[in-house]
């Protein structure tokens, strides 16, 4: 794929028929844990204008925890998971109430979608989210997506909405991703460092990852900092989706294709959305180590992983969880969704289909990882 110019990328963003916009906690709330109505309303005005011009708009909004701790009487973002989950339960309602009121001024409905990684990794749930988002967009609604913080279990959660937004962009087959934060773009180093310069255009985010010095969050309410935003830009880029990263106050110009913030070019054409989800949505819970024959078959890209080629299982996982498929020298070959629980895989290792049928029964004759649920790394 030849490298497009920055002007071309900005034009694609301006002309996007479907756009996913992600906004961070620090752009919606004050440090004291209350919503900043002025900034929220300004963001909604920019989104409503894009909607008026005919685009399908999905908003991925953080801020549930940040908007919930102030009203609950805490003076800082709680650090323990249970209190964060409680704060999110309060804050998410407050956040949606503000969004609904703000969008109503433009005659637009907002619809809440709360996602957990656990739900959406399974094929049926994934399609369910995809269908609901599609229908909302068909109805002219602006879906407002967040992680279901109050219910998400700590081991398997997105944790930051940057990565979630890139996956949602993929899910709705967006034409552009806009990441809004509290800094006006990607800098060569954390902006507090002397000499840090804003980068206007990143033609290849994979190359840029090695050249930029990134730090964690600069605010008391944000989570991932620039690391997770670059990861989101990378996921978008490998999904064929151009992205722009800028401050929330630049939302309008960014959506219009003005040269604000940092634009990222896609590095690939669009691929299968569900496979990408398997590849990025959740961290693997365990590993299946395979022999050389199975490694060759998996690398070939069209084979399922059969028990006969599996040597060892590590970690504890359930059927449907993401797992690594590793060669016996430890190199990662693929990620996939396990067809069986780890204890079951243990019993199945090295056995061919006839043996599995005879020893364990018919229900153990399926692949450990089906090829539709497997993505090479
Ligand atoms: N190279 C960099 N360029 C720009 N910002 C950076 C960089 N490294 C670290 N940062 C920090 O990342 C912060 C944005 O991340 P975060 O606070 O998680 O925002 P949000 O709440 O919007 O997700 C910025 O305020 C900035 O301090
Ligand atoms: N889902 C969490 C936000 C997690 C998150 O990514 O926050 P941020 O770094 O501000 O985008 C919430 O709504 O509080």
Automatic annotation (TrEMBL):
Localization: Cytoplasm
Signal peptide bounds: none
Any Pfam family matching the protein: PUA
**Can the keyword Metal-binding be found in this entry's annotation?**
no
Q: Which residues bind substrate?
A: 62, 149, 161
What PANTHER family does this protein's entry cite?
GLUTAMATE 5-KINASE (PTHR43654), ISOPENTENYL PHOSPHATE KINASE (PTHR43654:SF1)
Q: What name goes with this protein?
A: Glutamate 5-kinase
Q: What is the lineage of its organism?
A: Bacteria, Bacillati, Actinomycetota, Actinomycetes, Bifidobacteriales
């Amino acid at each position: 794929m030849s490298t497009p110019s920055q002007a071309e990328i900005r034009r694609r963003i301006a002309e996007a028929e479907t756009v996913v916009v992600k906004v961070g906690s620090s752009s919606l709330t004050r440090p004291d844990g209350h919503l900043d109505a002025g900034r929220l309303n300004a963001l909604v005005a920019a989104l409503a204008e894009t909607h008026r011009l005919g685009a399908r708009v999905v908003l991925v909004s953080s801020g549930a925890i940040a908007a919930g701790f102030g009203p609950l009487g805490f003076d800082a973002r709680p650090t323990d998971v249970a209190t964060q989950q409680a704060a999110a339960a309060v804050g998410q309602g407050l956040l949606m109430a503000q969004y609904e009121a703000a969008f109503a001024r433009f005659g637009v409905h907002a619809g809440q979608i709360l996602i957990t990684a656990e739900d959406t990794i399974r094929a049926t749930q994934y399609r369910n989210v995809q269908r609901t988002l599609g229908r909302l967009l068909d109805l002219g609604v602006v879906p407002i997506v967040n992680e279901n913080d109050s219910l998400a279990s700590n081991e398997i959660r997105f944790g930051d909405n940057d990565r979630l937004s890139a996956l949602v962009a993929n899910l709705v087959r967006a034409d552009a991703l806009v990441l809004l934060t509290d800094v006006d773009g990607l800098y060569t180093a954390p902006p507090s460092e002397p000499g840090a310069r804003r980068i206007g255009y990143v033609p290849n985010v994979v190359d840029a990852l090695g050249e930029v010095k990134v730090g964690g969050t600069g605010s008391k309410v944000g989570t991932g900092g620039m690391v997770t935003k670059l990861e989101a830009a990378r996921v978008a880029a490998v999904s064929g989706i151009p992205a722009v990263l800028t401050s929330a106050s630049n939302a309008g110009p960014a959506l219009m294709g003005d040269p604000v913030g940092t634009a990222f070019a896609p590095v690939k054409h669009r691929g299968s959305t569900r496979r990408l989800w398997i590849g990025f949505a959740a961290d693997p819970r365990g590993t299946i180590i395979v022999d050389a024959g199975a490694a060759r078959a998996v690398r070939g890209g069209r084979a399922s992983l059969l028990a006969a080629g599996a040597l060892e299982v590590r970690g504890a996982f359930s059927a449907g969880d993401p797992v690594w498929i590793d060669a016996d020298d430890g190199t990662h070959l693929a990620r996939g969704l396990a067809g069986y629980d780890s204890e079951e895989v243990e019993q199945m290792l090295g056995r061919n289909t006839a043996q599995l049928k005879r020893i364990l029964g018919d229900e153990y004759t399926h692949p450990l990882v089906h090829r539709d649920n497997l993505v090479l790394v």
